[in-house]
Amino acid sequence: MGKRPLAVFILFSIVMQANAQLGVMKWVGPNSNKYDLGFGGFIKSGFPVSDGSDVTLELGANIFFMNDGYGTADGTIMCPLKAGYRYTLDGTGTGFYVEPQVGFNLVGVTSLHDANGNQINLNYHGVVFAAGTGFLFTAWNAPFDLNLRYETVIDHGGSNNFISLGISRYISFGKRNTGY
Amino acid sequence: MKSYFVAAVIPILLSSCLKQSIPDAMLASKNSGGQGSPTATLSYKVNGNAVNISVANAESQDTNYYTLGCTKSTGGYSLDGLSSSGEIAFTFYTDSLAIGNYIYTANYGDMYFVSYNAQAEYVHGPTDSMSFNITSYKNGLISGNFSGQLTPLVTASTINNIFGVSGSTLITNGSFQNVPVFY
């Protein structure tokens, strides 16, 4: 896949330079049997709007490899930029939360081979919706976010859907009494 | 709290209405002849003998080994078409491909353009030329027409090529439609 090295570079740059974290992902719904487990990295920042809520901004890079016999040549890369509203259930800004997100898929590339063995690169963007839940906690004086989310990218009359389990050390631009 | 739950459920409901992944939806569109799935064609006559090239789903061709396409290369864009009788090649010498007329004349030096039944044809003679006219360039696809007057290469040599009768090969009725431009 032509753009895969670039995407991998971006992903690891995000992880290494922004203290962001990796997530493991499972493609669900249409085509789910064609994909192995995926991996992603993301930067996530929060802007406190109340004691228990943040407006969040997240930039991610997700990679899924296909199991069609072409090794790592075939797969899908998506780079969604999302805004969300994270609401902690106890209203303190820590602990369990729910977070709907909406955004835009900046880059979407799926590379695969057709029946004649010709490689096909499909480029798309699409609107992104996500529904997540997670747990905010502090470790070594750093805020962490353990999260599980369902995400869907919709474009060209189809959708790429996946479930992601991840942990991130997120960046907070603001202070509340709890320190988050 | 209720509103957050509703907001979280909406994407699940939305995506469940779609029965295809994005790649499958795009491929289905291409295979059904929908948007972005044109058949590329190129045809011409070599001294009256017709050559026709047609490639379905032309944008899906391997960009390194294609039958009919145009690739950005150093100094220009190279259009290449392969047929059972040979091939045709033309370079648009421009940094940015656009609608217009592109002419290669003998003033620029000898240049290979066509092979027909294993006979290579060059711009060589003083009145030889090859002209491509791009009349449409949309969605990464070019269309237009072309013509030329060429000279057959009789014997290739590392020192001096031996050519046949100057300007004896005429390329007429040249036409191309929906040829993909690969970057």
Helical residues, percent of chain B: 10-25%
- Major sheet characteristics of chain A: 8 strands, antiparallel, barrel
In DSSP terms (H or I, runs of 4 or more residues), the helix count of chain A works out at 1
Question: What is Rg of chain A?
Answer: 17 Å
Task: Just name the CATH architecture of chain A.
Answer: Beta Barrel
Which term fits the overall shape of chain B?
Answer: elongated
Oligomer: heterodimer
Major beta sheet of chain B, specifics? 7 strands, mixed, barrel
Mean pLDDT value of chain B? 87
Mean pLDDT of chain A: 81
% residues in beta strands of chain B: over 45%
The CA-CA distance between the termini of chain B, in Å, is 50 Å
Task: Supply the number of helical segments of chain B.
Answer: 2
Side-by-side strand order of the widest sheet of chain B: 3-4-5-7-8-10-12
Task: From the alpha carbons, calculate the radius of gyration of chain B and give it in angstroms.
Answer: 22 Å
Q: How would you sum up this structure, described in words?
A:
The complex is a heterodimer of chains A (180) and B (183). With 180 residues, chain A is mainly beta. Chain A has one domain: Porin (Beta Barrel), CATH 2.40.160. In chain A, 8% of the residues lie in helices and 62% in strands. Chain A contains one helix and ten strands; from the N terminus they run H-E-E-E-E-E-E-E-E-E-E. An eight-stranded antiparallel β-barrel of chain A has the order 1-2-3-4-5-7-8-9. The N and C termini of chain A lie far apart (40 Å). The mean pLDDT of chain A is 81. Chain B has helices at 2-16, 22-31, and strands at residues 40-46, 49-55, 68-73, 76-83, 86-92, 100-105, 111-116, 119-123, 129-138, 141-155, 162-163, 169-182. Helices cover 14% and strands 51% of the residues of chain B. Chain B is mainly beta and 183 residues long. Chain B folds into two domains: 1-36, no CATH class; 38-182, no CATH class. A seven-stranded mixed β-barrel of chain B has the order 3-4-5-7-8-10-12. Chain B has two helices and twelve strands, in the order H-H-E-E-E-E-E-E-E-E-E-E-E-E. The radius of gyration of chain B is 22 Å and the shape is elongated. Classes of the chains: A mainly beta (180), B mainly beta (183). The A-B interface holds A 29-31, 76, 85, 87, 89, 98-100, 108, 110, 112, 114, 118-120, 122, 124, 126, 129-133, 150-161 and B 1, 4-5, 7-12, 14-16, 18-27, 29, 60-63.
